[in-house]
């Protein structure tokens, strides 16, 4: 992954749109970021492999044969239908992440809009995990932490990217503490030592690029 490890950042803030333009950037072979200026669009095309769109900012309409079939808002997750012409139109500045799903995707239905943070609940004193993608190259999991829980220090099995979805927590990376809030991101390098301390209720998505 190209993002710098060891600091809190925002994918949305780091990928502003350009008036009248659409922009795409590659994070790795499975992850791309798209930035669309207001009233711009990406024309309809078909997809042969599963893809997930994570809406980072703004409002975006999904079209099929030029008819709106879904509207995405910040925090939404969308599973792109296969073998179906799909395009997007930005109603305001829209920034989203596209993740290659491979053949193993759970808890998502093609064409359905879901609030990513609602895919796992909170439970008193517990940490809850839900795998969304789990294959040979990529793992994408949603996690909830009740206040007072956490993960002790361990090493990442590959480059990993956090999407903070709700609340706040402390990420300790290579011995340095960083507070992260909903809407922010954080990257671990492969084998980077890290821990999570949830002094408040906290939800996050974690995308791991599994090492060969």
Notes on the protein architecture:
With 212 residues, the chain is mainly β. The protein has 2 domains: 8-116, Sandwich (Jelly Rolls); 117-209, Sandwich (Jelly Rolls), CATH 2.60.120. 2% of the residues lie in helices and 56% in strands. It has 1 helix and 19 strands. The strands form 3 sheets. Strands 1, 12, 13, 14, 15, 16, 17, 18 and 19 form a 9-stranded antiparallel beta sheet that branches. The protein has a 6-stranded antiparallel beta sheet with strand order 2-3-10-5-8-11, with no helix packed on it. A hairpin with a 2-residue loop joins strand 15 and strand 16 (176-181). The longest helix has 4 residues, at 11-14. The chain starts with 7 loop residues before the first strand and ends with a strand. The model has no long low-confidence stretch (mean pLDDT 93).
């Amino acid at each position: 992954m190209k993002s710098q490890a060891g600091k809190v950042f925002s994918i949305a803030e780091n990928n502003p749109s350009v008036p009248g333009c659409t922009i795409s950037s590659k994070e790795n072979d499975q992850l791309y970021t798209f930035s669309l200026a207001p009233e711009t669009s990406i024309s309809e095309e078909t997809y042969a492999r599963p893809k997930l769109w994570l809406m980072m900012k703004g409002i975006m309409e999904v079209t099929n044969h030029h008819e709106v079939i879904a509207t995405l808002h910040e925090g939404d997750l969308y599973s792109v239908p296969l073998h179906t012409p799909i395009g997007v139109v930005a109603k305001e500045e829209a920034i989203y992440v596209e993740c290659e799903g491979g053949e193993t995707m759970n808890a998502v239905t093609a064409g359905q809009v879901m609030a990513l943070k609602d895919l796992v609940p909170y439970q008193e004193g517990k940490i809850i995990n839900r795998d969304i993608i789990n294959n040979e190259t990529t793992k994408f999991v949603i996690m909830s932490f009740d206040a007072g829980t956490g993960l002790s220090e361990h090493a990442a099995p590959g480059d990993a990217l956090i999407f903070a979805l709700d609340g706040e927590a402390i990420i300790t990376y290579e011995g340095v503490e960083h507070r992260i809030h909903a809407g922010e991101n954080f990257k671990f390098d492969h084998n980077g030592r890290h821990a999570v301390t949830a002094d408040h209720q906290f939800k996050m998505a974690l995308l791991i690029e599994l090492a060969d």
